[in-house]
Amino acid sequence: MLDLDYPLLDSIEFYIRQPDGWKKILTGDRRSFASRQSFHDSFAVPLKGTSVHSLIYIRIQTESSLFVPLYLYDRDSFENHKEGLNLFHGIYYGIAFSLFLYNLFIFLSMRNESYLYYILWIFSFASLQAFWNGHIFRYLLPESGEMMHPAGSLLMFVSLSFSVLFSMHFLNFKKYLPGFYKPVIFFAGILFFYAAVSIVIPYRFNVIFANVISMSGIILIMFAAGYVYLKGLKAARYFILAWLLMFGAVIFINFQSGVSVFSDSVMLYGYQTASAVEMLFLSFALSDNFKDLQFKITKIQEDLIENQKLTVEIIEASKERLERQIAVRTKDLEDAKDEAEKATELKDKFISLVSHDLKSPLLGILSLMDIFEEDPENKRIDAATKKRLTEQLKSSTRTLLDMIDQLLNIGRLKTGKIKITPEYFDLQEAADEAILLLSGIAAEKNINMLNHVPAGVMFFGDRMLIKEAVQNLLSNAVKFTNPEGFIEIYIPENEMNCFAVRDNGVGMDPKMIEKIISQRSITSVGTASERGSGLGLIFCMDIMDDHSGSIKIQSLQGEGSIFTIYLPKPENAVLIVDDNDAVRKSVRSFFAEKDCYILEAHDGIHALEIIQNLKPVLVVTDIHMPELGGFDLLKEIRNIPATADLPVIVMSSGPSSEQQGSGGLGEVLEELGADGFFLKPLDKELFLKKVDTLVHLKKKHEES
Q1: Cα 654–660–666 angle (5° rounding)?
Q2: Which residues pair with 539 in a beta bridge?
Q3: Prediction pTM value
């Protein structure tokens, strides 16, 4: 018999070579118990008819710990082993059942909460042991393999919850540790809540979380028990011994994995033996405290009788307050659930990225360090080899640092530490800055980086984050472009509010593009063996998500790739045109309470470029400006069909007499098509009234 003695493996495939071919046997806790080759809690496969030198392959897939204790028995030895194991389990569950019945009888007599939580803990903990030993699968869920891990997760956290409640009541936190009483109750409630939702969370994460809670909880409970013992609760000595024994067993089992100092029997039976002794010690502690508990019950009953009227009055007076607290607590739990789900999603994503993408550079660094360690005096490594290895070490380190920076950026963006601050910015300037930052690594491969974005093309978004996105796309393009290649940033024809990064690199096939879009991550190697982790592209996509924008990927394998960034165009943009910075700032302040975006230009030429690109709803312009003044700007606006109806308000610092009489400045501007004229300094109230008649701009506090 070949026995794989660990009941919590999801899917197991045995491939046994026989004279007439390969024999395939499928088993695991995801399959029905009736389908097993041998009806035992472990996964045993009979090898009858198999030669001594037969080849056996085993394939295992599981969400639980990948623990593979493999034993080869003859039939008699196998049955003797299983009989001994069943006898041990029978003794263990017999002890647990006896203690359960004994303390249930006491609870029914005394109605003490400590006994209630103790028997509930025994029941849930023994059920958890039955899950770990495979008995639940064998006897309760023989046809429901998919329920195994949810059942195990539920039992783990229910057991933890009852152990917390039992410890709190037995150690009498209300009396000895009043400051911790409510927090502990709340924590137990959180554990019960998590027990309910744990059935939809992967089992491996539940095991890690349960281990952390168990280890830290046992330490805190022992400290609390020591404090209570010093305060006079003598029965706490048994309590301390019980948890100290369990703590030692957990440490021993966890740190003995893979160490052959002790026998398999010690490893197999040690944890359950320790838990059985723990149950006995806790029962002793309850019995030792029996008289004191009876006295307290009597005293409580007397107090209840004497204070019955007062209690009713307090309850009535507190009813409304408690209802409010329950409503607040319910809202807090809902918020905590949402936060936990978001944190879990982000944690899963980060764990996946870190485990997959940080492993290669770390292994590379370790391998190079091993080479240097094996030859500390450089006797076998010549100067050229040492230089090459050093460059490889530096390259792996730079790659690792770059990935860590990207992970930190993604984390800060997701947790809100990076705030989106949208504004109008010149795309050509932002692209020039990104190209300058990457010009060094592009020069190493003699790659030509070109900025074909016309001057004055304005986009609306967070300038620093958009530049970061451009920089990441350029960096990826450099990695996957061959030497002597080219990369360009340009505005696509017949497209609105977008720009693109194009290269003539190695390109991608449709399957790889689909993988990038669906998984948002793909690890690959550049044309000069640069490692691409996909983190930069993830950061770009997250930036676009937070801008309500998108990224479109086009590529042909061997011909290059195009990454197009689409940004939404905001509404209610107001353009202020003046060559004086102070005047623009003053007019800008008038719109502080309006729901609009302010764009500024220093002359008429700049203003026309902005108008054509961003289509503002209102233009406020000065008359006297270099290059192109207000008169000519107004004429240009009215002569272009797309902007002929654009509202324009003109302002001037000329004397008021210019407005008087026929042929005055005001009349001239009106003939040219101006919708309003004001002298500087502007009258804010009159100015805003005129604005309201021309365009509808909501106030910020009216936003829904």
Answers
A1: 65
A2: none
A3: 0.38
